[in-house]
Queue: 3 jobs
Job 1
Amino acid sequence: MLMDLSILDADEIFQLALNLVSDNQHAEAIALLKDGATRYRSDARLHYLLGAEYAQIGLYDRAAESLETAAALDPSLHMAVFQLGLLRLTQGQPDKAISAWKGLDGLEDTSALPHFRKGLEHLIADEFDACRDSLKKGMEINTALPALNHDMQQILDRVDAASAPQPAAAEEAQPAPATGSLFMRGYAGHDDSTRH
């Protein structure tokens, strides 16, 4: 039996999509979110979660478009702003990443996101010690989202591997730290993270 999605309001669509995401039902979540984002164009949460899902399946241009829409609709949706910058960084667009992260300028240092931002900006500048310090500080503060800390730990591991002393032959083969294979996750369902 096909369900008439038009009977669902924005809150219902968002919650149902979160459930689908947590069950790894990406096609169903995207279908629901596309419908919701079309009918409720001003709901930033729907655009944000749609963007995270597009990134999850590798449609990065669509992900960026949805995340940009979410950030424009609701600049206080800080996780969308952070993930937009992270997506730009993974696409090899560091200038666009830094520009996107300007949306985090008003956050206090008691939030993890400014520390993660600083760490990634240090990474862009090849300032590995400062990168490491900032990411670790953010991970200490972030107790609400273990998945985000896991992503930052992956970056730290790459920084450590790239900055470790290497034998001369291995030094040439060692890639620089990169976040290209880092998958974005849908953190949108966590109230604590989306507003700080």
Job 2
Amino acid sequence: MITLADGIRLNVSVSGPQDAAVTVVLSHGWCQDRRTWRHQIEALSGIGRKAPRVIAYDTRGHGRSSATDPSSATLAQLGDDMAEVIRHYAPTGPVVLAGHSMGGMTVMEYAHRHRAEFTSRVAGLLLVSTTAEGHAHTRYGLPPQLATVLRLGETLGAGLLARSGAWHPHRVIMPALRPALRWLLFGDECGEEAMLLTMRALGRAPLSSIGGFRGSIGTQRRLDTLAELGDMPAAVLVGGRDRLTPPACAESIARALPCAEMTVVPGAGHMLPLEQPEAVSAALLTVVRRVARQAKRARRPITDTTRCQRAA
């Protein structure tokens, strides 16, 4: 656990060698928790003596971390939280940041609000099923007019939920919500373990978090921030059937990051780390290995002039 400056306690897991050449920080999505990354944590630990240090944490208002009030249920606050986590658990050495959905937006907010720190510490990125343009491309797989109506209803409902406090009565109706969640969050295939983990995390999320973060998620615009990051190893993944952050979101992110390698996973939905774990793990391992090689060659902090090597 770490206690943040405002008293919120975050549930944090740390694994891997203390003297690892690289530290990986994993940030999960809206209404999920750090278990989203379970397959990637296992894959990173499986590379033996070259394994990185791995930090995974439950965002405030999620998982086993403290509940949060509406005033701090923002992406800006999550960016500040990420900065505190990195300072505490990874005070030195190159860092690779991996973010899924809202976690990817958290990475962007950290870069925006802590630019000097980000530039000096972060050496690689993995952005999965996320966006730098709020809900600009979100259509829920529906015709535009119907999607607009649904978004309006969602936004109004989120405002009510944000004021509903740290309780979760929806947990009892999760089985009834399963078909809708299956359609919204997954693609052609959905393993039982992936579905259960997703539902359990959502059932644990309090109403105040479900509603509270919706506003800043919908309005965030960080393409300019990404374009200013310079060259670094980066991977951008999206499912071909993602109804929340469709391929157009990944395409704009990849254009903003000069060295980003974009992958569209055919037939996959929004929950890629659980739905297509091998693809996500492979992309993360590639970024980690590139960062480790560059750090070894340079034998100094990685700079903008040495970061990008697509063929490395």
Job 3
Amino acid sequence: MRAAVLTGPRTIRVDEVERPEPGRGEVRVRLQGCGVCASNLTPWEGADWMEYPTPPGDLGHEGWGVVDAVGPGVADPAPGDRVAALSFRSYADYDIALADQVVKLPPALSGHPFPGEPLGCAFNIFHRADIGPHSVVAIIGVGFLGAVLTRLAWLKGATVIAISRRQSSLALAREYGADHLIPMDDHQAIIERVKDITDGRMCDRVIEAVGKQWPLDLAGELVGFGGRLVVAGYHQDGPRQVNMQMWNWKGIDVINAHERDPKIALRGVRQAVDAVTAGVLDPGPLYTHRYSLEELDAALDDTRDKPDGFVKALVTLA
């Protein structure tokens, strides 16, 4: 099979490698595609903790496809079932997943891409945010994750303030239900605008979905007394400083919304499948750019640089 191998910073080759065989309790998925996650960017650019070359297919963790083989002891899913997989080497033609870490996709989703992991991540973040029908919610950073969270908050009946750098992202937030749009360009101006919107009370919930220091600082400023700051951005480029005096004074809850319990991760994917199947959420417009496996380097560069209109990249495999 083909598999992408990261051989060094910003250097990828596609190798022909042996197709893996499923062991006990495992299934093999013939992948149809894999989403490109922003968490790939630090390994792509090169980090002190990275070891090269990576295992074949490594870093790809947003795959979906069709089960084509099962290991001993697996009765469900069966060969032929289309699934979203929680697996970790999906920049390849095939990947191995635990049988209890895949979610079957219904016929209604046939022919549609379904990167289950990031969709499930959004549902789990939303659960941790505890947004109510009268909550005032600020979402800082409207990419794929921020757009889905905007939609979920709108569906709940919350008032949503979308804050993002690009005008195209703000337009997307409006389409997905945001009530207020604020360009992320001036720290104090953003604070003053949110004060105006909330009559000085600030926000019940603030979701930081960027993964950088300034948006985290801003999130602390925007959350109101007794509110909740939800860290959804993936902070992987070093330590962060926080204004603990302000956090203490406001009496806020701070939630790191990155789930590591496989059962919870799976729950989010199932909720996403149900929502998309029911037509409650349409993620299709968010899949803006598609690449072949041989173009994975371009997909990663565009995920970093965000050309006009970019939201999420998919690598198509079949």
